[in-house]
Amino acid sequence: MSLHLYNTLTNKKELFKPIQEDYVRIYSCGQTIYDDVHVGNARTYSAWDILNRYLKWKGYDVFHIMNITDVGHLTDDADQGEDKVEKAAKKEKLEPMELVTRQILLFYKEIEKLNIDFADIYPRATGHMVEMIEAVKKILKHGYAYEKNGTIYFNVMKFEKDYGYPVLGGRKLEDLLAGEGGRVSEDELKEKNSHYDFALWIKADKGHMMKWPSPWGEGYPGWHLECSVMSTKYLGKVFDIHTGGIDHIFPHHPNERAQNITMNKTDEEPIKYWLHSDFITVNGEKMSKSKGNFYTIRELLEEYEPEAIRTLFASTHYRSQSDFSISSLEEAEKKLERLRNTIRKAKESKGGDKDNLLRAIENVKNEFEDAMDDDLNTPLALSKLIQFTGKINNNLDSKPNILDEAVITLEELAGILGIDLSEKREKSQDAAPYIDFILEIREKLRKEKLYSIADEIRDELQKKGLAIEDTEEGARWYIKGKT
RNA sequence: GCUGGGGUGACAGAGCGGCUAAUGUGACCGCCUGCAGAGCGGUUUUCCGAGGGUUCGAAUCCCUCCCCCAGCUCCA
Question: How confident is the model at residue A109 (pLDDT cuts 50, 70, 90)?
């Protein structure tokens, strides 16, 4: 089997074939950078990280762009209301760009902690104002936009007539018509030719801070525009994969696609595969700030290991809604522990002369790849790894080189899922000689059968976060869980 | 209302036409251990929302119904 991905553009799994043989160009919708990264964001980025790693493992060169929206995302609907960045900045009495800088730095740190590979470029909307204005000009010139009082709207009806409005996720334009009905304000309707039209460039109201001069007066770009402009700039008019959250199936991505087509005037489908990851719920409810059921990565990392979070993410398929709870995270911790325990045992084993593990290594590689080829079935892939740990544990008397290979395989495959199994840099390295010393004394007590004192020592060390295991060759210890 | 995705053992979560329906967790019992831990073995008696249909054969396909979630407003 070879890699198949579920394409929201066609609503089916398709064989993945990049435009260029060994080179894959990916654009990911990143985040509007006014707030901390939460589990939901992280889950999505984790999914694309796995996609990237897997493609690389398969031998492709991957060029990955993830945008950072630092202007143009409004609190109300697409075309009115306050800019989110500006609003958040005002609240904290910061310059908008000051807030953005702070949040970006935090974003990078957390992405790194979560073992999410950095994208090759993180372009920012504010850095592409010139290109965005040029894009609006092009779309106007090509006849798919019109101006009303300094605001430029995209003409969806005309686009629909000429190209067919993108049907992402099985939706049709008519479906969106009244919808749940008139959330569109009177003012807006007055200006727009059609209810579906969206703004490319928005005239700045008085007091709007984030604005730029343009041929149509001072204004700022519409939300969708940056993605079209930046993807075209860095990836070209036609590229392979576009990712994003399920919420972008409408309206962001169809609009973005319409812009790509009309500004670049391509007859070819500009983006071959659209991938969307589903949302996370918290204890069965949609995660939202108003409900207070919001987990930021920052707070989770205070108590849990990033590897546990990645294990949790890998435990559900990216296109399934997954319910986040502390107990699910703790369950993921246990899976992680199992993986680590096996590696520890294998590394400590002296080995023997068996070689039937060889076949298990071959099998797990194949099974893992089959699972991943099927639209990145990470839960299945992970279960194969866990099955493999059983095989290793049953064959700790294998030839040392085979044991080594088993460990390398396990680490490599888990790594594709973003789960780093390499040994932790032990924080208490300095304490190691003392711990060893204490355990030597404890060993003497055990030989004297002074078990109550020995057990007391063990309990105390365990309370401090160490795992103590007695073996024939004496006690072993390691740092358990979060260091 | 419309659109999409779902309902699988105590729980999480694969499977989507055909071996006794993965895997993990939990519970229980063994092995190991001074006791634990980790690990290993076993058990958890017929888990596929309901009802029809197609088929030699369905959790898997079709129809009807019930229920859940999300989207249709900014959102990963």
Answer: very high
The secondary structure of residue A115, as a DSSP letter, is T
Two structure tokens written together for A132: 């965005």
Q: Does A178 score more than 80 pLDDT? A: no
Q: Of A131-145, A285-299, A456-470, which range is least confident?
A: A285-299
Looking only at the bridges linking them, the beta strands covering A23-28 and A61-66 are: parallel
Local structure of A219: helix, strand or coil: strand
Check if residue A146 sits with its Cβ under 7 angstroms from strand B. no
Angstrom distance, A440 CA to B27 C1': 37
Q: Where do the domains of chain A lie, and which CATH numbers do they carry?
A: 18-282 (3.40.50.620), 323-416 (1.20.120.640), 429-479 (no CATH)
Q: Of A184, A218, A214, which is closest to residue A81 (Cα–Cα)? A: A184
Residue A425 clears pLDDT 60, i.e. is over it: no
* Sign of the alpha-carbon dihedral angle for A377, A378, A379, A385: positive
A201: number of Cβ within 10 Å: 29
Place of tokens 């993605």: A227
Q: Which nucleotides of B are covered by protein (CB under 7 A)?
A: 1-5, 12-15, 22-26, 33-41, 69-76
Q: How many helices (H) and strands (E) does chain A have?
A: 17, 15
Say how far A139 CA is from B46 C1', in Å. 64
Cα A88 from chain centre? 24
What six digits make up the tokens of A322?
């997954």
Taking 3-state DSSP, the helix, strand and coil percentages for chain A, each rounded to the nearest 5, stand at 50, 20, 35
Q: How far, in Å, is the CA of A447 from the C1' of nucleotide B34?
A: 10
Q: What is the mean pLDDT of residues A297-326?
A: 92
Write the CA distances from A52 to A17, A63, A89, A166, integer angstroms.
15, 9, 33, 26
Tell me the percentage of chain A whose pLDDT exceeds 70. 90
What confidence score (pLDDT) does residue A180 get?
35
Cα distance between residue A346 and residue A411, in whole Å: 12
DSSP string of A90-155, one letter each residue: HHTT--HHHHHHHHHHHHHHHHHHTTPPPPSB--BGGGGHHHHHHHHHHHHHTTSEEEETTEEEE-
Query: What is the pLDDT, as a whole number, of residue A66?
Result: 95
Q: In the structure, what pLDDT confidence band is assigned to residue A411 with cuts at 50, 70 and 90?
A: very high
Q: Does strand B come within 7 Å of the CB of A43?
A: yes
Per-residue confidence (pLDDT) for residue A169, from 0 to 100:
61
| Distance between the alpha carbon (CA) of A281 and the C1' atom of B73, Å | 19
Is strand B within 7 Å of residue A451 (CB)? yes
